[in-house]
Structures are given as C-alpha cells and as structure tokens.
C-alpha cells in the first residue's frame, strides 16, 4: 500500500535485469503446460507450476522458471543432520554456492516435516538475486529446498513459488483437513483459548496492543483487546480502539462498487475507460481490456511499484496519483499471474466515487460514496478516512522494532502516504466497525435486524475467482478465498507502518473474526490466528501456538543477523564520500546531513539515520534505521559520477548528484 509521485515519467523506473546465474548441469526436462502434481526422487509430493521446466539430476529435482536463470531445486539426501544435508544438496544441484551464509534459524514442525532449518545467504544488491535453502526431515530422508531466483522473477512469480512450497508434503502424508466437520460452539472455554493465543503472542512478540472480535450464528460472541494503545502508557486497547486497517479497505471499496452495481450505475463488466475516460495504464492493450472487476483483482499483470509513494507523497492528489498509472507497465500477461497493485486498486475506488458524485473532486467523491454506501448503512461509526479525526480519543499508535530489535514508536508520518491512494488501504476503523461488515458478509447482504442491505448475488460476485493465488486460494475483488484446510475461508489482510490486521469468515459455518494490531511483527498474529481459529472450531492439531512462537523467534534472529552486517553510526569515511544532494525524477530528492557521528538521509516527507553495510562484492550500501522503515537500501555507485541506487524487486531507481 504506497502512494505514487505526481510526475514520475515512464523512464524513471526501469525494470531490473540481472546477470543470469550459471545453470546446473541437469538432464533435459519437460516444460509444463499446466500446474502438475509431481514427486521428488524420494517420492515426496508437490505441484510443479505451469510454464516451468522440470528436470532431474541425480537426487535433485530442478524447477526452472520461464525466465532463464531462476530455479528451485528439491533435493533428497541421506545425511546425519541439516547442515550435512544442505552441503550435499548444493553439490547435487550443481551450481556454485558462492554466497556467504548470513543466518540459520530453526522452524516449527509442519505438515509431517520435522527438524526444519532455514539457511539465508548474503547476496550483493547489484546481483538482484535472492538465495536460500531449507532442510526438512521425514521418512528417514532429508529434503532440501534450494531457492536461487532473480528478484524480479521471484516477485512476479511469487504465487507459483508459493504453490511449490505450499504443497510439498512427505511421501504418504496428506495435510490435515476439516472438510465435512461441524464447527464447535465458541463457548467461554474456546473463546478463552483464542484469547490466550493472542495475549501470549502479543507479549512474546512485543506488540503493544491487539484488538479482537468474534462472530458466530449472527451474533458477536467476543469483542475486546489485549495490551496498550501506546508503548509505555496504560490506556488499554479495546473493541472501540481505532487502527489503520490498511488493505482491508479494499474489500470495503469493492462493497461500495457493489452498491453502485445494485443501483445500476455500472456493472462489473463495464470498461473502466467508459466511466473514467482519463484512466490509462502504461500499456494500451491492458488499458483497453480493464473492466470494473479488473481494477481490484490483482490479475492485470501490473506489479507492485510502491517505492514511489513512500518517497513522494507531499502535495499528491488522487488525480495526480492516478496519472502515474500511465507510467506503469505490466510484467505478466492479463490473467496469468497474481500480482498485487495498490495504485490500480486505488483507481477502483476513485472511479466508483466519480460515478456516484461526478461533480466532486475525486477524493471527496470517494469519501462521500463510502460514507453513504458503506459506513453509515452498516453502522461503522468509527470508520473514517480523516487521519486527524481518527487520531483523537481512543486510537492506537504504530510501533516497530528499532535497529537492535527493541519495540519503539514507528515513523507514523510515512502512513500519510496512503491518503492520496486511500481506496487501497487508508481507512481507520475499530474491531466493532469491522465486525459489522463481517456480520453483513456472513448474512449474505442482510443487516442484523434482517433488513436487506445489498442483493446476495451482487455481494457474492466479489468472491468469484479472478486469478489463482495458488492451488488452494483465489483472489476475487478485494477478497481472498482460501480452502487450504478443507473449509472455505474468505479473508483479507492489511499492513502499513506499525499496523497489521486481518478479517476472515467461514461462510459455510457462520463464523467470523477480526484482528487488529499496532506493532511489528503483528503480521504473525493476524495471519496465524486463522489457523488457531480453525483448531478451536474443529478440534484440529495444536500447531498455531508453536508456530507463532517459533516464527517470532525466527524474525528476531534474522533481524539480529542483519544487525551484525551494519555499521551504525555509518562509517565516517564512507559517509564523507557522499554528495550533499541527490535527485531522481520519480522518487524526488535525498539530502545528506550529519549530526555528530550520525549520517541522515532526508527525503522531504520523512528522514532517517542510515547505517553502512559492506556487500560481498565490495560495494557499499547505506541502509535506513528508523523504526518502521528499517532496511531501505541505497547502493553507492562505482562510476565517475556520484549515484545512489535503490530497488524494489521489479524496478530500479538511480539518484544522481544534484
């Protein structure tokens, strides 16, 4: 969820291209025409994605993406321990293991695998590559997964990568399924178990506050909170505490569009340009094919391009934010891959607002459409897009870890970047607000008093699959539908600086939940809560508590490993080599200053002290260290002109000395 600058030319964000990695010597394989169930050499089952090439070399099953040089290898070996297994796997894979090991962390047992260990290697930013390994044990055999991928390919094909990892199961094992089971009543004991899970995770992870709500049988059975609104203060969070709900806003935006469909002011099949003639993407063919339903389907091939809104949001309006869509290019075919675009989702909301109130400015029109079609009819009294109003009274303050892994207040100013693209993630709301929305979804369009709010078919059309996330899950219009554990879970999550949230419901069982958090790594609580809810409802295996604890340990261990690579304050000699002022057409300016031993990068909208990092290839990076924005990396150029380069997975931006 990030806003874009008002004047970013198409050439300012260049697609990344990395040197192709040396190919392992594998026997000729087959190119798959569809997602295909396969087995490793030892008989472990997985799904190989459509378009990928699969080949076998000794104990290694090698999957290569359609783009050459990006591979995942599944290697079955006999070894005394994980370290020995990984060494054997690299030898069998056949590509040079040239990267230093950055960290190893143990992971929880899962899906029949035990003794799981993750290996993270330190690549250099200019390689534009991610490399890792994961060892796991079952049936007296180690299976090592080697991830050796170009970053652009890894992000673009993230759903296919998830397909490989998500369905990799030991020979003879199947994932637990709750299909055909009847949900238990959420009685006091079961509600207490869910509460204990949240409270324990909140305390162990250092998240200051978590608010939670539960619905069953059309009634709210729990709404409350654990912890505090702000670190070091006593005011508790509760069901009326306001949080930014981030990308959960998308589902509310498509609900507003659904009301306009019901009012016959548009249809899901209406071309976007017929309602909003100025709508334009960087690719003419894609522009012409975009219907209303495609604006928020993550299916158009438009990738994340979020850095532009992080660095350039002062003075940005909805009009100028939408204007930057014309500079953005798709990186996959229409409907081919799940790729998440916040600016395009913002366009969906602004288009709806324009249809509802054509005489108003785009932002005001959207706000009014949401107020009149969604917030007021559903009784969402705390929901608002007004940041000043939201941050009064009972509201949560965002938090994140500092450079040493300790909880601190996050740099909240960066969240203002969402305001110009707020249909994609800018709503503030309470647990009680979001519960009212979930209650309506479970009632298939009816309000608590039984009165109709929206036609069932129009409401449910938002859940229809527009693109596959993986074999178990699809994305509709601002909603995911997941059947991983044999039951249908409709849900969405949201993440901004220091805020992480989720809402979910089981339409076949009449159960729903909302989780809102005000600190990192709150994403672990909000995502693993779904598993805990299913365990409680269906007497499932107790996995969630161990998973959240172990994943938290992994998070802090990985943060500590990153910290060891940084020099903070920044190396004085390297700092002195920097220019005082850099600029980039899309991301704006970077001004460099010093305060004592500290080196400061000031981006205008926000600033941060930076640390230095020496990369394996000898290059130097400057890395931001302010809580909430730790890890934004600028690589110092080696040419005659002084430059700094920053990248997301699929784009690169060069700042030149000004």
Automatic annotation (TrEMBL):
Read off the Pfam families from this record. Answer: Beta-lactamase
Location of region: Disordered:
1-25
Outline the extent of the Beta-lactamase-related domain: 197-522
Identification of the protein by name: Beta-lactamase family protein
Q: What is the lineage of its organism?
A: Bacteria, Pseudomonadati, Myxococcota, Polyangia, Polyangiales
């Amino acid at each position: 969820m990030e806003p874009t600058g008002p004047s970013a030319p198409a050439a300012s964000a260049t697609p990344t291209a990395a040197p192709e990695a040396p190919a392992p010597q594998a026997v000729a394989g087959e190119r798959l025409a569809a997602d295909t169930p396969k087995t490793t050499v030892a008989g472990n089952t997985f799904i190989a994605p459509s378009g990928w090439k699969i080949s076998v070399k000794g104990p290694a099953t090698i999957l290569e993406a359609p783009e050459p040089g990006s591979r995942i290898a599944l290697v079955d070996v006999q070894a005394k321990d994980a370290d020995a297994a990984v060494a054997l796997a690299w030898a069998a894979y056949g590509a040079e293991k040239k990267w230093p090991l950055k960290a190893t962390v143990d992971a929880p047992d899962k899906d029949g695998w035990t003794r799981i260990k993750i290996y993270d290697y330190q690549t250099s930013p200019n390689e534009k590559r991610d490399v890792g390994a994961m060892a796991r044990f079952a049936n007296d055999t180690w299976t090592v997964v080697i991830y050796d991928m170009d970053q652009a390919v890894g992000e673009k094909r993230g759903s296919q990568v998830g397909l490989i990892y998500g369905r990799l199961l030991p020979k003879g094992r199947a994932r637990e399924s709750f299909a055909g089971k009847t949900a238990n009543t959420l009685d006091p004991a079961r509600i207490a178990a869910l509460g204990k899970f949240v409270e324990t995770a909140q305390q162990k992870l250092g998240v200051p506050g978590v608010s939670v709500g539960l619905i069953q049988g059309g009634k709210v059975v729990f709404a409350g909170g654990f912890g505090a609104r702000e670190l070091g203060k006593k005011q508790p969070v509760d069901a009326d505490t306001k949080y930014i709900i981030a990308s959960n806003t998308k589902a509310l935006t498509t609900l507003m569009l659904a009301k306009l469909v019901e009012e016959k002011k548009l249809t899901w099949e209406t071309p976007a340009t017929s309602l909003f003639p100025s709508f334009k993407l960087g690719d003419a063919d894609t522009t012409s094919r975009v219907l209303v339903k495609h604006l928020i389907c993550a299916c158009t091939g438009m990738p994340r391009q979020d850095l532009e809104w992080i660095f350039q949001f002062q003075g940005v309006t909805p009009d100028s934010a939408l204007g930057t869509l014309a500079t953005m290019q798709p990186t996959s075919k229409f409907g081919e891959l799940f790729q998440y675009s916040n600016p395009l989702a913002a366009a969906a909301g602004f288009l709806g607002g324009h249809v509802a109130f054509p005489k108003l400015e785009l932002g005001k029109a959207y706000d009014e459409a949401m107020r009149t079609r969604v917030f007021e009819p559903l009784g969402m009294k705390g929901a608002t897009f007004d940041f000043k109003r939201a941050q009064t009274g009972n509201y949560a303050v965002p938090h994140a870890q500092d450079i040493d892994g300790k909880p601190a207040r996050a740099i909240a100013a960066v969240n203002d970047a969402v305001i110009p693209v707020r249909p994609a993630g800018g709503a503030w709301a309470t647990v009680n607000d979001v519960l009212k929305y979930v209650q309506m979804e479970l009632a298939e369009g009816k309000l608590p008093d039984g009165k109709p709010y929206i036609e069932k078919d129009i409401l449910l059309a938002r859940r229809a699959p527009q693109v596959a996330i993986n074999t178990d899950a699809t994305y509709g219009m601002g909603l995911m539908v997941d059947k991983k554990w044999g039951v249908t879970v409709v849900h969405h999550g949201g993440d901004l600086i220091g805020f992480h949230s989720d809402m979910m419901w089981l339409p076949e069982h009449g159960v729903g939940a909302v989780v809102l958090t005000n600190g990192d790594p709150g994403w672990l609580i909000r995502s693993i809560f779904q598993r805990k809810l299913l365990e409680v409802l269906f007497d499932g295996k107790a996995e969630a508590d161990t998973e959240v604890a172990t994943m938290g340990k992994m998070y802090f261990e990985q943060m500590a490993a990153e910290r060891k690579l940084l020099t903070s304050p920044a190396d004085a000699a390297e700092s002195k080599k920097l220019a005082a002022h850099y600029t980039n057409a899309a991301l704006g300016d970077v001004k460099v200053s010093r305060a004592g031993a500290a080196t400061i990068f000031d981006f205008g909208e926000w600033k941060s002290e930076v640390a230095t990092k020496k990369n394996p290839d000898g290059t130097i990076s400057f890395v931001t260290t302010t809580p909430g924005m730790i890890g934004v990396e600028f690589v110092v150029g080696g040419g005659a002109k002084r430059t700094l380069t920053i990248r997301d997975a699929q784009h690169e931006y060069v700042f030149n000395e000004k």
